[in-house]
Design brief:
Jelly Rolls; 236 residues; mainly beta; globular
Length: 236
């Protein structure tokens, strides 16, 4: 088993007045040659966007972009003709493929928006660009993992152009659970949204990240009530 730990206070951090953003991996003006990616996982940004502010229309290609709002409402518009809003318990995915443009704004004029934006390298390049979003029932993630993104349609989840799975769970203090690897050779990147846990002998707190590979499962014990995101991706 191999492990890499990214403590919350070691993340890249940038502020632009309207945007307060933390980068788990190298992004924009933040660069660390040891933190460029974890397998196919390229970006994990923790963004706080001021009321009424956001990212104007900008391009992407050949990247799978997953957005998970934690608080507030995001308004999305894109060159494919979508105008959508997403809030907590919603998940959005864009398969940028051969190329798209989109904008992202905090729909509220009064309160801040907090979201995770995650980029994954695609399995197949230059596919037709696609968009999807889904609302998930948070009751179905209490003390267990709920799959929200997957490479097939066998369960209720968003499709991704990669052999990757995103799972999220909300666990009470004192719980013990396991996460089983979905595909041999993949690695598992755990991002602790809230709480405090111990996983495979490693302790992690709020917004810490732990990458683990060359093992088939994770054993997780909650020290506090915790919300956990696991991103399973190919390591090659």
């Amino acid at each position: 088993m191999k492990t890499v730990i990214h403590k919350a206070d070691t993340r890249g951090h940038e502020t632009y007045g309207w945007l307060n953003t933390y980068h788990t991996f190298s992004f924009s003006d933040y660069y660390d040659h040891e933190r460029v990616h974890f397998g196919a996982l390229r970006v994990l940004n923790d963004d706080y966007i001021s009321a009424g502010a956001g990212f104007g229309m900008h391009p992407h290609d050949n990247m799978e972009i997953v957005t998970i709002p934690l608080a507030g409402v995001l308004e999305h518009k894109d060159s494919m003709g979508h105008t959508q809003t997403i809030a907590r318990n919603d998940v959005q995915i864009i398969s940028a493929g051969s190329g798209i443009k989109h904008s992202e704004y905090n729909k509220s004029k009064d309160s801040s928006l907090n979201l995770l934006q995650i980029w994954v390298f695609p399995k197949e390049k230059n596919i037709k660009s696609g968009y999807d979003q889904e609302t998930f029932n948070e009751e179905e993630r209490k003390n267990k993992f709920q799959i929200i993104v997957a490479p097939d349609n066998s369960i209720k989840s968003l499709w991704i152009n990669q052999d990757a799975w995103f799972s999220i769970g909300s666990f009470e203090k004192g719980r013990s659970t396991k996460y089983d690897l979905k595909m041999a050779g993949n690695g598992m990147y755990m991002f602790l949204i809230e709480g405090k846990i111990e996983v495979n002998g490693i302790e992690a707190g709020r917004r810490d990240g732990i990458g683990i590979w060359e093992t088939d499962e994770l054993e997780i014990n909650t020290i506090e009530d915790s919300e956990i995101l696991i991103i399973e991706v190919p390591m090659k």
